[in-house]
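Sample pair:
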Amino acid sequence: MKIVLFACVHNAGRSQMAAAIFNQLANPARARAISAGTDPGEQVHPEVVVAMREVGVDVSNIRPQKLTTALAKDAALLVTMGCGESCPVVPGLERDDWPLEDPKGKPPERVREIRDEVRKRVRALLVRRGWAMPVGQDLCDSRPDDDVQLRTFLETVGLPADDVETGRQEYLLAREGQRIVGCVGLEVMGPDALARSLAVAQDRRGLGLGRRLLDAAIQRAVTRGIETLYALTTTAEAYAAARGFERIPRSEVPEAIACLAQFQALCPATAACMRLTLSPAS
């Protein structure tokens, strides 16, 4: 297991964010993070506590700590936080510097932007080093008693959920324990099907789970003998196009698909309508 040391001067803002997000997303069997500072403050900045709590991470009880030789001796990588000449240096330790703005005293919206930039950099590091949590490694079929949790999950990520019913639609779920972290559905209408509700939890994006879900849905459609797969999307047109979907006018959608609630009421008129023609060899 590798240890990553996130360090800045006061260990009260950026380095705390980075270490907490790293430990949330990393495979604990491969890597974990610690954080420290050369001149640690008394507490994590209050604005950082609030911003991290918004994404389900509590750093309110963490005390900034001093960067020492003993603390750094087992680390494999030092990541500093763009504090210029004040940034810590540990001789002999691989170092990467992230030019991040100090969140101290910044308005909430700016602190959120800094937090999200930290998350983006942490994800990239995890993927690059092969330390990411294997999210949803084993996709599973939904059950009727998943309906309530699935609706809640879709509402959380901003997708329509009013017509979710596992008795009428098939869903593949990615879980971590009892928590749903990703899903995709198929609504089959004769030789055609609607690929719907492709979603990944906010804190598990950027790790390849969405691609695995969509690929699994396409393979499921092929196995079921579906001839044509349709989709509506407001955000993933390029993503679907990379898997062979083409954008088409809604007038080209067969009536059985066009009558579904996703087309009639739930998805906005601005959503891209896409089609993937399947064959047994797909």
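The first strand starts at residue 2 and ends at 8.
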